[in-house]
Amino acid sequence: MKYRTTRTAVLLSSVIASLLLSACGEKVLDYRNAEVVNGALYARGANEPFSGKVTNVLAATVFEAQAGFSTLIKTLKNVDPMDTIGGTGVISICDVSTNKGVLDGPVSCKLPRTDTVQLEAAFSNGVLDGNLTLHDETGAHTLLELAFKDGQPDGIMKLYSSATDKLTHTVEWKAGALNGGEDGFDPQTGNRILHTTYLNGVLEGEMTQYAADGKTLTFKGTFQHGLLNGEVDKFDIKSGIRSVDHYTDSKLDGISQAWDASGKLIGEKTFTNGEDAVQKQKEEEKERLGKEVDVAINDPDPEVKACVNSYPWSKAVTPSDDEAIEEDRKILAWRDECRANPDSHPAVDRSISQIKTVPTTQYNNGK
């Protein structure tokens, strides 16, 4: 009789628990006891997709399959490769809501073995839809706020400093692409230190950057279809050096100048399609002369060839560009004298120090 009473009590408590669970309208499933079949989540062995709360789901499992979330992380890393926001929250453990086997409803993710909430989001019919908020590892400081719509970032993204809780960055998303203004703020002063604009995911229009005081201009340039074009002004706070460059499609193109803190010109170069025009001209001249010298030392006329190879080659095996050009010009002048009179050994300017006769192969290899 005692056995029957105990068994009856157990059965009664089970019925009450089931009634209470039904009244709440929520079923709870540990993810360890779940399985995913054809993209839908089931309680292991069940015939119908699960609807209710699923616990202990890795954040990576929840978010890595979300294209919009991946776009967000990629963008954050492109802006600042050292930024850690993209990895924050992914190692946390989440409680999610499902409806007929797909994510639907709120998601809350906590650090393993703690009650510290790091990531909060919402899903609708399997995709991110609603506000996403990311906190630091203490849970006390918000790092990021952004809304999603139909699985994609959509709205004003806000980034905050965990040290000061001040707003450090805002940028507008539309349907998964950066569209609209972007502003940066100093985490200490709160002054605006960046302003630019995006169109369909690429920079478009003027970009300005400032020092922490929000007044001292450190960068000013214009983007067209994501590429720098036109005049770019830069100012280095520490050195006081100001520079003005010119760009075409993000490549230096035109005159580049720099001035020290006193306003004295300290450097000037001319670029063409991203290359130093003077240096490029010098390299082309060096290559042209080098080819002429190769022809000269292998002249088809044996007497001319012997005369050319009697030139007192420079000792320098790896001369500078200027030295190589000077030497090659002298060799070619010697070649011209040899052609005029191969039996003579014309005088040569011996201003290059420590000259001596070396095999031509050594000279050519040095080039």
Automatic annotation (TrEMBL):
Keyword entries, A-Z: Signal
Positions of the UniProt region annotated as Disordered: 340-367
Polar residues bias spans: 351-367
Signal peptide: 1-23
Residue stretches in coiled coil: none
Keyword Signal set for record: yes
UniProt name for this protein: Antitoxin component YwqK of the YwqJK toxin-antitoxin module
Lineage of the organism: Bacteria, Pseudomonadati, Pseudomonadota, Betaproteobacteria, Burkholderiales
